[in-house]
Amino acid sequence: MPTLPKGTGVSHFTERGYRCYRYLLRGFILVGLNDYKILLASDSGLFKVARLFLYLLKPILKAMKFFERGYILAFK
Prior knowledge:
The protein has one domain. It is 33% helix and 22% strand. It has two helices and four strands, in the order αβββαβ. A four-stranded antiparallel beta sheet has the order 3-2-1-4. Strand 2 (29-32) and strand 3 (38-40) form a beta hairpin. The two termini are 18 Å apart.
């Protein structure tokens, strides 16, 4: 779902105990929305560079609420 229904946000899921992830690059990179931990599908050099890039931009992207928009995976 590209956007959540009106009145439903990421905080709605995290308050109910769900782990929420924003997925980037077709799911090869997951960013945890509870703790903003960056998970990689592979330990290749390209993904490590992408992790470093996201790590450096994380404060700016958090302030812009970039990770809360787009496709989100939520599960318990």
